[in-house]
Design goal:
This protein folds into two domains: 121 residues, MutM-like, N-terminal (N-terminal domain of MutM-like DNA repair proteins, Alpha-Beta Barrel), CATH 3.20.190.10; 115 residues, Helicase, Ruva Protein, domain 3 (Orthogonal Bundle). The chain is built from seven helices and twelve strands. The strands form four sheets. A four-stranded antiparallel β-sheet has the order 1-6-7-5. Strands 2-3-4-8 form a four-stranded antiparallel β-sheet, covered by helices on one side. The chain is elongated. The two termini are 27 Å apart. GO terms for molecular function: class I DNA-(apurinic or apyrimidinic site) endonuclease activity; damaged DNA binding; oxidized pyrimidine nucleobase lesion DNA N-glycosylase activity; zinc ion binding. This is DNA-(apurinic or apyrimidinic site) lyase.
Length: 257
């Protein structure tokens, strides 16, 4: 699943193309949008903002309509030249000038009114965005402490209601960098230790959100059975499914406590 840095990277690519501009055209090729009349409802409307919160991306228009996207496991955002041939599973195409903005195979794509309760609740239900300009650490700790204290800290970090934007990769890498066992119960992780994971994760995610080069930050993720890069060859990286979704966690049992 694309993580928060991937979504912020997409927003950073889309923003200079669309923000402050009236799109030349908007198309919704997928049949499910046939009756929704997005092109007509957005015709002549300038884009007032392109932003992300956690794994959610929003394109806002001056008439208070908002395109909301969540890519889940399959979706992608692309910014391409106008002569780019869109794939058949393209759901949304926005053209301005010589550029196309496309959402491909994204299972959550909707046009909604910014003032609607459903929109407000969607944001309110999320924890603080780890990539916000100023991270609200106290809000993160409050939400963490109202969670189940017997839940593994690695699993709690994936809960977007606790903190928005962290996915399986960054959960593993943050816990490793901070030296915290992802299987330790949340109630046994101090506030200082919980914030150490966030402080290890946030700058790497910020860099990835700017560069789009997430792969270069993988140290333990996907490296099951290989020597631990911190404590040497006598301790191998382990991998096991964690949480209700059985997402694979990578960790070193020797140097993460």
């Amino acid at each position: 699943m694309p993580e928060g840095d991937t979504i912020h990277y997409a927003a950073n690519k889309i923003r200079p193309v669309l923000e402050g501009q009236i799109p030349d055209s908007i198309e919704t090729p997928h049949p499910r949008f046939g009756r929704d009349r997005w092109p007509q409802r957005l015709q002549g409307q300038a884009v007032t903002g392109v932003d992300a919160h956690g794994k959610h991306l929003f394109i806002r228009f001056e008439n208070q309509l908002v395109i909301h996207s969540h890519l889940r496991m399959t979706g992608k955002w692309r910014v391409r030249d106008e002569d780019w041939p869109p794939p058949r599973n393209t759901w949304l195409l926005i053209k301005h000038g010589e550029k196309l903005v496309a959402q491909i195979n994204g299972p959550v794509l909707e046009l909604m009114t910014a003032s609607r309760t459903r929109f407000d609740q969607r944001i309110a239900g999320l924890g603080p965005d780890i990539l916000a300009p100023e991270l609200d650490e106290q809000a993160f700790l409050r939400r963490l402490r109202t969670d189940d204290p017997t839940r593994a800290i690695g699993d709690a970090l994936l809960d977007q209601r606790v903190i928005a934007g962290i996915g399986n990769l960054w959960k593993a890498e943050g816990c490793f960098e901070a030296g915290i066992d992802p299987w330790r119960r949340t109630g046994d992780v101090s506030d200082v230790e919980a914030l150490a994971i966030i402080h290890a994760t946030r700058p790497r995610m910020l860099e990835s959100s700017r560069s789009g080069m997430q792969e270069r930050f993988k140290v333990v993720y996907g490296n099951a059975g290989k020597p631990c890069p911190r404590c040497g060859t006598d301790s191998n990286i382990r991998a096991r499914g964690q949480g209700d979704d059985n997402r694979t966690t990578y960790w070193c049992p020797r140097c993460q406590r």
